[in-house]
Structure formats: C-alpha cells, structure tokens
Amino acid sequence: MIGGLIAKVIGKVAGEGAGKQAIEYFAKKQQLKYQLRLAKIEGEIGLAAAKLKAQAEWAAANIANSGWKDEWVLLLLSIPLVLAFIPGTVQYVHDGFAALEKTPAWYRWLIGSIMAAIYGIKPAWEFWKGKANGS
Questions:
Q1: How far apart are CA 110 and CA 42, in angstroms?
Q2: What gap in Å lies between CA 21 and CA 14, rounded to an integer?
Q3: Spatial separation of the C-alpha atoms in residues 28 and 78, rounded to whole Å
Q4: pLDDT at residue 120 greater than cutoff 60
Q5: Residue 92, C-beta contacts closer than 8 angstroms, at least 6 positions apart
C-alpha cells in the first residue's frame, strides 16, 4: 500500500514534469515560428526598401542624363499644337498628320518608342492606368 502510494506520488510528479516539458517545448516551438515569420517580414521589408531605392536612383539618373534631346522633342511635339491656333496654318497641321498616317506602321512605332524612351514608359503607363481606373 505504501509502495502504491509512493508510485502514485512519483507518477504524479513525473507527469507534472512531463507536462511542464511539453509546455516548454510548445512555447519554444511557437517562439521559433514567430522568429521565422518575423525574419521573413523583415526580409520583405528590406527587399521593398531596396526596390524603392533602386527606382529612385534610376529616376534621378534619368533626370541627370536628360539633355537637349528632351527639349528638342518637346519643341517638335509642340509645333502642331501651336500652329493649330494660328489662323492660316491649321491646314498645314491637318496635312501633316494626314501624311504621317500614310507612313509605314514600323515608322510610327519607332517614333512612339523613341518618345517613350525619352520621357519614360512608366510615367505614361501610370497616367493611362489611372485614366482606365477612373482617376
């Protein structure tokens, strides 16, 4: 009887120790999951920051490298706009665009590509995407 009582006490103490170990194991496992999740989030934040920095540097380099070609293209694009408001020159604007419509498609695509390269594809894309979304 005393042996049974001692066995019960030892079993209960051992059971409590096993329960405590199980709780510690679970807590450690949860801590590791949390640390892994935190590391993943920190990595994503770092990647996003690096991407933003690269985009800002690219934009700054484009601004620094823009030269006379930007002004030249803007001037050329502005000529029909200005002439459209000057009496007697409107027909020249119409005739010019009619002549451009008769040029090969590859030439018009080339001109569009040059404009996109000079002024940037992304700003135009963001502008038109905003228009499509009703902004």
A1: 43
A2: 10
A3: 68
A4: yes
A5: 83
Q: Which of the two residues, 112 and 83, has the higher pLDDT score?
A: 83
| 118 neighbors 69 (Cβ within 8 angstroms) | yes
pLDDT digits (tens, 9 = 90+) for 13-35: 555 566 677 778 888 888 999 99
Mean pLDDT of 74-94: 91
Q: How far apart are CA 68 and CA 29, in angstroms?
A: 62
Token pair, residue 1, equals: 């009887």
Distance between CA 126 and CA 129 in Å, rounded?
5
Tokens at 57, concatenated: 């540097």
Residue 50 pLDDT greater than 70, yes or no:
yes
Given a contact cutoff of 8 angstroms between Cβ atoms, the answer to whether 90 and 83 are in contact is: yes
pTM: 0.40
Spatial distance between the Cα atoms of 103 and 110, rounded to a whole number of angstroms:
11
User: What is the Cα 42 distance to its own chain's centre?
Assistant: 18
DSSP code string of 9-23: HHHHHHHHHHHHHHH
What's the token pair of residue 79? 């000529």
